[in-house]
Design goal:
With 311 residues, the protein is α/β, with parallel strands linked by helices. A hairpin with a 2-residue loop joins strand 7 and strand 8. Helix 4 runs parallel beside helix 14.
Length: 311
Amino acid sequence: MKVSDNTKFMLKVCEMFYIDGKSQKEISGVLDISRPQISRIIAKAKERGLVSIKLNYQNFEENEVQRLVAEKYGIPEVYVYDIGKLSGSEGIHKLAEASKELFNIVVKNNEQVGIMAGRTIESLSHVIEKSRNRGLVFIPLCGVLSSSGNSWYANNICQNFAAKTNGRYFLLNAPNYLSNKDTKKLLLGEKTITDVLDKGQKCDVVLVGIGSLSAQSTGVLAGGLSEQELEVLRSEGAVANICCSYINGEGKVIETSIGNRILGQSIEDVSKSRKVGIAMGQEKTEAIKAVLKGKLVDVFITSLDTAKRLI
């Protein structure tokens, strides 16, 4: 009989690995068998039901719902947080607070981080813990939404993140919504603008919100878009926007009359980046569904209430 088929021996190996906390290298030295053998014994013990692993969830409902969302939409990482029935600015702040520790997980040291405008991303920039020497660089993925000042413009958020992490940041000194495509073409001839846009396309990770076509969208609230223009976008089949792209209900990027005069990164421009989406709210349910159907984010963070509507 092979040593790896001996039940008593298999249990001894598993006891040393799971109970005593010894590494496979340490077990190999004690029992005088190779590390590959140790690995096969542990795998076989699981197959035979000699080992069962139990996770003690702090909130079983959160974890069950996030598993269902991940399975339904095929998104690699989904994180769901129970923030009760809070909505609006209170809900956004609570979700940012609940998920702030993920920042150090989804954003690795020495990465270039693309930042989109939005209230949720802005809130996250305020609540993350201060850190030093992470070597982070923050790059705005879109220009300012209007001439009126707002704290949730991408430039401002980049400054917030850089201050919290002792990192560096760039500014995109140009409007997001332009009057026509000729103006966009003119601005794309400015080196100070194209330099930042080029950096935005080479980000390691991007933090993005998910926009709905409602009167409460950041574009409308900032004054960059009118409600009449929202109607035009809806008539053209748009149900949501992510980065500077408009998408339909199936998550496909569509051409719109407004899209061709926006200055910033489209979702295709950041296709090689790790995309972290954070969004919540009943009014955004259909927009979020479209983004998830299109698999336009790699990591998705949301509230329990929103996640339930998604499934």
